[in-house]
């Protein structure tokens, strides 16, 4: 009866249950023989009714290996927030722990040592000692959870940060700097900067109510150079200035939410190395340009997403110009699609900006025909046609991640809450997605959605589908920004960098822009390639705007002076006129150039005046496009959805 009652009750843990039967360091038995019973005939464990407190990691390690010496390796940080590093040597291996006190650092070192070699019989008790959730850790699993700290471990995909190249000759200053920067992922930029340069003075130099997201501008001087940052409040402006310093001086880059990321020592590291000062200058210049061109028209100065392309002309990228601007978040309504190329299909900001870029390219080709080659960005190729002059590069800025694959993630959950889905390339990621007619956001492409029909869309039987901005930018990284028509004259033009003002996640952005094509894109014709632009976030991220998206879109190209306002629902200007970015307008300008430069390529003669024919005869472009569509299809990411073929079957009467 007594035995039955004891087995139904929860037994008190015996003190030796926390220790293994054998010492994992030398294999010797840790049991000292059977316990003697007390005079009352009961063992001490049966008489004891009071629960012992759980043993921490330091106690556990000292029981396994008595006499260990803990050495204080270093003390860093300001007096009000010291940081101690304590080491302990176990079985020839050295383990270092850190904390805000020597005791916490000793505990951290003990945790590291225990986690490296011990498998326990009583796992829940040990998890308590190691300060880990019971359902999260098992010492018999792979070593992915090794390296415990007093803060939750970060996911590998959130530890991206560029390589830090500096003097590590062994001087105390160099070693201390390396140590501080190695902890960048755990600290905010202001704290990190103050550890390296104590006593810095952040100054408020401007308050501008016109741009709420950049209301405050603060500066800080470091090593004789002045760095600035902006934000909706002083705290965020200060953090922005600190991020600018850390990026420019120490190559520490940050995502939208202020956490640093480390680029691995691989080819991908170069993808995230872009001068922060240039990225911030492009962002600031673009917003300033938009404010300038919209002076006098405050009703249309509102935007939810803004994008633009900047051009640099030298290796230092100091000489930059904002050449295109676009705003907007909506697409044309199905009942307004045009058979004559007069209506814009997609008025999302980055797409409008790219159409403005085509306008810019046409203008520079026209310079050649007008005898103004010195004003053009092009020079003649020996084999015919035109290419860019040396050192000219183009950089795309978007105020947030492009819709579609680059924006499908939970920014505040990844790395902290999401324990079940650690893989950035799971099946639902990388898939082609389409924008929704009369709405915002995107949906994955279903099987059989490759072709849309005119008579299905017009009466409303089908929704008009438009490929997401992430997918379109991915296509630009294969086909170029110039499109099919201009490929008659010029070689592909690719982006050098993509800069985001918000929702920047390096892994997701890389996958969306080109990563999902790396292993499947094959048989590209000459001159075409898989472009891998650099990726960067601004040091002053755009704040989330809780407002209704305007129904209009603004477009502007350098040299045109005034911006154009387009009704995104109809695809025409608010006055009901054909946009200067429409297919028919571009085709008219193209034909004037074609009549004088058609001898460049030996293509078959297109049907006179037929828009689709002039696009289809550019064989090398069409081959690259087929390879792109096939790459997505072969990897199970979906079929590229095309507009009804009737949209391109219009003729130019002249």
Automatic annotation (TrEMBL):
It comes from the Eukaryota. Gene3D superfamilies: 3.30.160.20. GO terms for cellular component: cytoplasm; nucleolus. Residues 9-24 have a biased composition (Basic and acidic residues). One of its GO terms (molecular function) is tRNA-specific adenosine deaminase activity. Keywords: RNA-binding. InterPro entries: A_deamin (IPR002466), dsRBD_dom (IPR014720). SMART domains: ADEAMc, DSRM. GO terms for biological process: adenosine to inosine editing; RNA processing. Signal peptide: none annotated. Residues 324-650 form the A to I editase domain. It holds the Pfam family A_deamin. The keyword Magnesium does not apply. Residues 53-119, 176-251 form the DRBM domain. Residues 1-52 are annotated as: Disordered. This is Double-stranded RNA-specific editase 1. It comes from Trichonephila clavata (Joro spider).
